[in-house]
Amino acid sequence: MEALRQDDPRRFGRFTALARFDEGASAVRYVARDLASGETALVTAARPELAAVPVFSRRFQAEARTADRLAGGWVAPPLDPGDAAETPADEPEPLWTAAGYVPALPLAEAIGIAGPLPERALRILGAGIAEILSRVHAAGSVLQGLAPNTVLLAADGPRLTAFGPLGAAASAEARPGGQLSVRLGYLTPEQIEGKEVSAASDLFVLGLLLAYAATGTTPFTEGPAEEATRRIAEDEPELDAVPEELRELIANCLAKDPGQRPTAGTVAAELALEGAAGLARGGWLPEPLAAAVADQEARVLALEVPEEGDATADSGTADVPAALEDARPTDPRALRKPADADAPARNTDGNGDGDGDTGEDRGTTRFLNTGPRPPRNDRPTTQLALPHELTAPQAPGALPAAHPAQPPAPLALPAGPVPPQQPGHTHGGPAPYPAAALPAGPAGPAGPGGGPMVSLPLPPAPAPAPDPAASRRTLLTIAAAAVGGLIVGGGSVAALGSGGTAEATDDKPAPKPRPTLPGQAPEPRWIYAHPASESSPLTTALWRDKLLVVTSESQASAVDLRTGKRLWQRADGAKGQAALAAGADLVFVASPTEFLWLSPKNGKVVHRVRYTEAFDDLPGLTVGRLAGSSGPVIWFTGAHTVVEKAPKPKKGKKKGKDKEVVEAYFFAYDIVQRKELWRTSVPAGRDPGAPAYRVVAERSADVLVRQDAASLTAAEVKKAKGKGSVRSFDQKTGKLLWTKQYGASSLEAATTGDEDGTLYAAVGQDLQAFEADTSKPLWRVEGSKDSWFGTPLIAGPLIHTTERSRLVGAVERESGRLVWRRSTEVPGTGPAPSLTLSGSEKTLIAADAVQVTAFAAADGERLWKFQDIGSADPKGETVRASYRTLAFGETVVVQRDRSFYAFPVA
Q: Is the pTM of this model over 0.90?
């Protein structure tokens, strides 16, 4: 870290900059703090000269949206920026993002401090990054954001800080006319050959990164710079110094043929079957790095807001702020100043070119540093140019003529519309259109800075007048190359942020499934993407193991569970609940105003019963959330408002005002016979309206019901004294039989029951069983510290348990004996995972906001885990929805917002 320089910004929205964390080619990262709340942030601010380039601004924002979608696990969640700081009219609007500060060291710095990482640390590093990549690739996207300075090592595991080529760039340069030249740090064999990047490209770079972490060097870049691309394309990697146990896996990642590389899920499972978080428990960093991370945290906490005079121009001498003086480390290496402020800046990237270096800054005090900078022998290998737009008209399939050999220069396109290429144009400057370059082979001559350049063929140009929306959605694809670099722009392979998930077509064969390893999710039978043009799903349900019925604000739609193809959509079912089987041939849906019976073939409404007709003695009835169902019977609550007449006044007194009163009822209804079975009056809920009930057990004589705490009135909450209760209603008449409380089970405690009359409820940190009719305690299972149980799942002789601490288990129903308990190995907080059993009851699925984990129900063996990044629309909302799971037969459907995956299960 370094003290702030004189020209560094001091404010980013609600955050005040305290120090420079580090800097890259396209951005500088600052440690900053919200002085009002004390919250510390890591702010990534684009370099002003690049922020003024429109194409850079768009890409920077797209990569920020990607980080937002990936938040959780090993990606720090973004922070609310607060009120934007005012920017002078003659200055460009600053580009920056903020994420929670996590004490950590960049990988490159860590290697410089402690040398190559030991095998266990390598496994955790690789598994954590692979877990992120698996989420990216599940959405059909490519990351391209890996480099030694984009990966941070924190006390509990790795963190990724770049989400695209800009963040991982070795150098970036704004050029005249709104052009941008970006030099990549790593190149893959398929890029050298002019092929498109894919998920396998990320795995190649992951292999390079792991080799670097294991040896301190990158296996293809030792030797003459002009031969680097040849070595990547032709030579086998030098991995002798890599730990033997990891050598084969890293070699597989570095396979020349993308099809031979493992998937991200395979890498994650092979490196750490229990997950990176599980393997990292108890600490994972070598002692020097753990000490450096702890030291950094202490010094960041001690930072105070520097005054304007605390940093000087680069040509001056910076004084250490008074607030930092007290935090000065005892180790002299931790606070260092260039020995000779007048000496030229040293080259620290190892390529001898002096460009893109991040060496010691003359006249700037360094602090919070724990060791020397590492050697930079992983030379950048290619130039990347980002055009403003790719709109040049050209005949489909035609390739522009190759330029004659010219001195190498980075390729950049004009900011405005690009005219067709003129015959005979020579490369005396930026070409009017990207052209095929030197036909001399895979590698051209060395470019500026000694980095080798590549020659790649140009694919067909896009058709004239492309769809503007499609242009906005397209982010990163290799489209063409010229002397000096790759062209990034429009194309057919979506990268992170591209819109939607492509659906398979019948005339295109499905890709051959890759072999899987334990811990890797199986290949899905199908993937369905709910259209981005429609509102997000509200409810999902299975109908007779044949249809997946999805309701939204605008309609209900059905997906064939065999193929994953949408069969129909019906506006009548908008905002509907459930999707129950009403006999053998009808789909029942409860909308806000009526009950609907739909045809499973085309969604046509066969019957409809409006609430005003079915319950004509309850005018204005509103139906609440369904409380539960059993066979043809559904239970639900409803409420309506009546006017209560004021009592007749006494003689000589004025008549009081009439008042509106809410009356609420609990109903039983037969959806096959389409008739009400019974109703019973119940207390109205909060705000006021129908109370939110949930059936927790159905027995032969009664149903046990629990009311959601959020729908209790203030008077009911006060009367309950913090304890939750369960009501018993007669199955035949609906009569309220009793209301009971169970131990110290709270209003919000998870509760369920079985047909034998046992109730299971969370009590404090434990799970306790009670005799439902007497509330007598039967047994107790201790939970983990500072956690609580979620809703358990009953399965034969077992009860499957779930805890907020991400522990999932099984106990015997009769005795409460613990059978097994395992962790999902997912970092983070939030509610306990929800549980689902497969049709055979052999597989238990746990789902939360970060991951889906499959266990063997009998013994808790962890079978596989799955993550995705949800919808990938760069203009859409960030996906923060938790996973949902629905099981039928030998399939489990995993949903996250608009994305649905059908996985085979035992």
A: no
